[in-house]
Design a protein that fits this description.
By secondary structure, the chain is α+β, with helices and mostly antiparallel strands. The chain is built from 9 helices and 8 strands. It has 3 domains: 79 residues, no CATH class; 78 residues, SH3 type barrels (Roll); 101 residues, Alpha-Beta Plaits (2-Layer Sandwich), CATH 3.30.70.100. The chain has a 5-stranded antiparallel beta sheet with strand order 4-3-2-1-5. The protein has a 3-stranded antiparallel beta sheet with strand order 6-8-7, covered by helices on one side. InterPro entries: LSM_dom_sf (IPR010920), MscS_archaea/bacteria_type (IPR045275), MscS_beta-dom_sf (IPR023408), MscS_channel_2nd (IPR006685), MscS_channel_C_sf (IPR011066).
Length: 293
């Protein structure tokens, strides 16, 4: 900064010319921002497909950035000393945030090469679930999806997440190769209940509900998912286990479902098993609340 002030006050430099060039750079950046917004508006008018729109906007944004860099270099390169000092200033300011920016850019290329997710896929990262709609050099944008009542639905909110988060948080991809995910539910029965009977009832009920669920899915997609499970020595049909706790036995049921029906199908499975236990006289622990005066 000291060198720059000395340079500005020296007689060797056309200060007015330098300021004019700086003003020209500001104007170029402002025009680029207006062009970016105008092209985004035109693209959205031209196509209603969100994925295609995001791709076009990303390409236009990248081109504008490259054009800006070329123009700025062209403006300052004509005067070598002014250009070198401007670069020094830019690097000084850039150093304040260089770590996060570099990691974001590295993460961008990692995403492009390894493809842990792509446009249109539903992911969860840092407790945020959403459909991926856009990726750029510094961040990716999600269309948030709500916490599952009857199906996974969009909330209408868009969330921007820094690219570096893929190195800092686990990424859950709900439909990377298949639209199915494994889920589980649990119901607790009392210690004096017949554990083996509970397992038989839960298994029979779970299998019946499982059969009715997969009837609505694409048979080829189901077969592909089951083959993938078989390659890992895992079962696609419902599996059960019982676990002893201090108040009873937890009966766990694991099954697969479409990722966008997780909430609905877990509710259906849990309610069906609860009703079957109730009809068979299998008791569930009572919950008590204690109020301290």
């Amino acid at each position: 900064m000291k060198d720059f002030m000395v340079y500005i006050s020296s007689d060797e430099v056309d200060t007015a010319l330098l300021l004019k060039k700086t003003l020209l750079v500001v104007i170029i950046i402002a025009i680029s921002i207006l062009l970016s917004r105008l092209t985004q508006w035109l693209v959205r008018k031209w196509t209603d497909e969100e994925i295609r729109t995001a791709r076009y906007i990303r390409v236009i944004r990248t081109l504008l950035i490259l054009i800006n860099i070329i123009l700025i270099l062209k403006i300052y390169f004509s005067q070598g000393r002014a250009f070198s000092i401007m670069v020094t200033l830019v690097l000084a300011f850039f150093a304040l945030a260089v770590k996060d920016l570099i990691v974001d850019i590295v993460a961008y290329f990692y995403i492009m090469i390894r493809k842990p997710f792509s446009i249109g896929q539903v992911i969860e990262i840092n407790h945020v679930i959403g459909e991926l709609v856009d990726i750029d050099f510094l961040q990716f944008n999600l269309s948030e999806m709500g916490d599952l009542t009857t199906a996974m639905t969009h909330t209408g909110r868009y969330i921007s997440i820094p690219n570096r988060f893929i190195f800092e948080h686990p990424v859950f991809n709900y439909n990377f190769n298949d639209p199915f995910v494994m889920v589980d539910i649990s119901i607790t029965i009392t210690l004096d209940s017949d554990r083996d009977q509970a397992l038989r009832i839960a298994g029979k009920t779970a299998y019946e509900k499982y059969e009715s669920m997969i009837e609505n899915y694409d048979p080829e997609a189901v077969e592909h998912f089951l083959n993938k499970l078989d390659s890992h020595d895992e079962r696609g049909k419902p599996t059960l286990r019982a676990e002893l706790t201090n108040i009873g036995f937890n009966i766990y049921v694991q099954f697969f479902t479409a990722y966008d029906e997780m909430g609905k199908n877990k509710m259906i499975m849990r309610n069906a098993i609860y009703d079957a236990f109730n009809q068979a006289g299998i008791k569930l622990p009572q919950t008590y609340s204690i109020q301290l005066d």
